[in-house]
Every structure is written in C-alpha cells, then in structure tokens.
Amino acid sequence: MKKITALLCTAVIAGMPFTTVALASGDNDANQAEEVQNEQGSTSEDVQNEDVKILTLDDVVKRALDNDQNLVVLQYELEALKNQTLDAVDDMRDTQKDIRDLEKKLDKLKDERDRLTGLERLANGQERVAISDALELLDDKITALETAIKQLESGQFQLNLQAEEVKEGISLKLTSTYVNLLNLQKQMNFTQKAIQTAINEVKKAEKLYQYGAGSKEAVDQAKRQQVDLEKQLEQLQKNYYYNLANLSFDININYNPDLYLTPVDMEIASITKIEDYDSVIEGTFQMKRAKDNLELAKYHRDVAYEDEDASEFLKAEKDYKVKAAEETINKLYKELTTKIDALNHNADLAELNYEEAVRKLENVKTDLANLEKRYNAGVVSKYDYEKAKLQLEQALLNVELAKAARFLVQQSIEALEKGYIQ
Hints:
Elements (H helix, E strand, L loop, with lengths): L3 H8 L15 H14 L13 E2 L1 H10 L3 H4 L8 H41 L2 H86 L5 H35 L9 E2 L15 H6 L2 H22 L5 H65 L5 H36 L5
Helix pairs in contact: 1-5, 1-6, 3-6, 5-6, 6-7, 6-9, 6-11, 9-10, 10-11
GO molecular function, one term: efflux transmembrane transporter activity
Organism: Paranoxybacillus vitaminiphilus
Keywords: Coiled coil, Signal
C-alpha cells in the first residue's frame, strides 16, 4: 500500500487556484514556452505532431482534454504542479485497491478482537491483563486503519474534484483563446481595409498638394495615418501568429500559419446571470474541497476525543483544526459571492456594450443610406462615399467584438454552474 502521506501531498494540489490566463503577446511567455520545452527534454524531432488544416472549437477542446499532459500543462503557471498532478493520477488508480485491502484487514482485526473479547470473559488474573492489552493494541490498529481509509477516501475525492476542475478550466481557457483568435482575424481584415483607405487618402492629399489646393502638412499627416495603421496591422499579425503557435503547441498539432479556424456561432438571446448564489456556491469545486476538509477535520477530532490516551492538548488542537476549517468555509463563501457579483456585473456590462454597439451600427447604416442618396444625386463624390463605407465596417466589427465578449461571459457563467470559477 502506498504511503498515505504521499497521497495527501498530492491532494493538497486541489487547494491551489487554477487561473485562466489571458492571451499573451510578450517575450516572457515565449521564454516560458522554451523553458517548458527544455524541461521536458523534447524537441520538434522527438514529438510527431499532426498536420491539421482546419480546426473547430469543439476539436480544439477535445484535443486538449484527450491529451493527459494538457490537464495541467496548458497554462505555464501550472508547470510547477505538473509532476505532482501526474503522480496524483497514478495514486488515483491505486487508491481503490488500497482501500479494499485495508477494509479486508480491518474485518480480520475486528474478528480477532471479538474472539479475544470472548476469551477475556473466561480468563482471570494475568491472562485477563494480557488479553486486555492485546485488545487495546488491536483497537489502536483498527483506529489507525480506519483513519488511513478515511484519508485515502478524502484524497481520492479531492483528486477527482481537481481533475474535473482542470478540465472545466481548460475548456473555458481554450474557448477564450479560440474566440480571441477569431477576433484578431476580424481586426486584421478591418485594418487591411483601413490601410487601403489611408493609401487613397495619401494619393488624394498628394494630388491636391500638386495642384496647389492642399498643403504639405496634409500629405505628411495622411502618410503618418497610413504608417500608424500598417504598424497596427503588424502588431495584430504578430499577436495572432504567436497565439496560434501557442494553441498548436497546447493541442499537439504542427504549427500552420494558414490554419483555418472555423467560425463560432456566438448568437445568444441574452446572458443568463447567476440568481441562486447559495446553490451555485455549494456546487463549486472549491467549496466541495473545503467541505471535505471540514469533514476530515471533524473525523480527526472525534477520534481524538474517543481515545482515552489522548491529551487535552491534542484534543484542543483538533478543535482548532475544525474551527479553522469552518472559518475557511465562511471566508470562501464571501470570496465566491464577490466573484459571482463581479461576473454578474461583467454580464451587465457585456449586454450594455453589445446593445450600444448595435445602436451605433444602426445609426451608421442610416447615415450611410442618406449619404448614398446624395451620392446617387451627384452631390457626394464616389471617393467620399467609399470612404464612408469604412465606418460601416468599423461599426460591424464593434458589434462582432461586443458579441464575442458577451459570448465569453456566458461561457464563464456556464462553467461556474458546472463548479468552476476563475
């Protein structure tokens, strides 16, 4: 049987937070990725990844969850926990066998105790003392085994909770990553159109300056606008390809800059906010762990009080352990309430931002329709009319980005309803 303390050490992992990391775009993340690769002792030649041309959100999540390492490695902050968690997975496979072995031993010891108890009634003097000592020893062994079983069951429960929590965290994190990649694609497409408009602005300013109807300052300003947009597009592209490479690494596929990301249907009627706080909080992985810790603390306290040889100091220690576990639950309840408040607040903001983006889009459509009438009447030039169309593209992009933010908030709420909270 594995040492109980080893299992409990791995179970401690469950008490550590699992945070969702936003899309990274700096050198630090690149260095961390390289360090992870070096620590694993593998290179691109060692790992045969799959060539993929088309991805869907469901495919991304499935690939991540099917990869055992991705249960802990997808976020670089969890790398320190990797070996402990993988050991814990091995422990989970053995725990049921350990418990069955202990229960068999426990049954045998109880039978032996009953047999000696019967002999004690018939014995006298030294025999009774010897039997009494043997019974006390057996009671101690039984208590130790019962405690071991309790510890193993608690450890297994905590590990199962952690496995489910990590899966939900991975699903939410990858959904956010995938949607943000789609957003970057939309932003790049719009910026490319804006650059073309800026190029036309430069040409117009240069012609006006050439014919004496414009200034050199206007030309320089138009060129600066074009350069700013080109730099913006370059930054968007760097972020996109960097995050696409990270996603490829996370799901064990070969990096392909031309990888097609299938669009996601992000249409929702409205965000469903959390109403029943108590029910949701009770169902979170964090609260379930805290409640299990309290149950274990109470068990140890009861064992101490039932032990005639236990000192008052030991009993007091176990009392304080119970109080600490109870206080942890109270503290956690307040923390989770605050997080749900924040999530509901984000839901309200996401709804307002989306409604505002839709309202502005309708205004732009109205303005463009009026401008089109003036263009058809010959009052407005084709150049100005085409330029105004870019405002419609910007308004459409804003609606899409607001819709994506709204969709991600809804995903966070659904993950919370499954027990996971960021």
